[in-house]
């Protein structure tokens, strides 16, 4: 009888970093487009619409949408834009929330805790 080994799912941070490595120029364009809209909170439909607006090429668009970054965007509940950062709240399944923040200028990615994400969201409101 073959033994099955349970593997760990890559963290949200790792998935975003891997996609940044594979599609650096494309994601810089997309994330810069989010940041160019100014401070605010983007809803899921806006995140997906921008992918369609930025990538007219089917090949690039399809590889992003069907890859790990596409899974992140499809499961995103909101994104907080506070230049140069884009923080994304992701709900991959009911009861599970993950938060990641990307520095668009440095292309650095960090996983956030709930309190860090909410603090970042408060910074957005306090600066308005």
TrEMBL record:
Pfam families, sorted: SUS_N (PF24861)
Keywords for this protein: Glycosyltransferase, Transferase
Domain Sucrose synthase N-terminal residues, every copy: 9-122
GO terms under biological process: sucrose metabolic process
Catalytic activity: an NDP-alpha-D-glucose + D-fructose = a ribonucleoside 5'-diphosphate + sucrose + H(+)
Enzyme class: transferase
Catalytic activity, EC: 2.4.1.13
GO molecular function, one term: sucrose synthase activity
Family classification: Belongs to the glycosyltransferase 1 family. Plant sucrose synthase subfamily.
Protein's UniProt name: sucrose synthase
């Amino acid at each position: 009888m073959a033994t099955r080994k349970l593997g760990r799912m890559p963290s949200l941070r790792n998935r975003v970093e891997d996609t940044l490595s594979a599609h650096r120029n494309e994601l810089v364009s997309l994330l810069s487009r989010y940041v160019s809209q100014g401070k605010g909170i983007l809803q899921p439909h806006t995140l997906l619409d921008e992918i369609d607006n930025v990538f007219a090429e089917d090949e690039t668009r399809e590889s992003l949408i069907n890859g790990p970054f596409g899974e992140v965007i499809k499961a995103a509940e909101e994104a907080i834009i506070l230049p140069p950062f884009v923080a994304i709240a992701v709900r991959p399944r009911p009861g599970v929330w993950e938060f990641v923040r990307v520095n668009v200028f440095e292309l650095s990615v960090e996983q956030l805790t709930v309190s860090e994400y909410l603090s970042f969201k408060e910074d957005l409101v306090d600066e308005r």
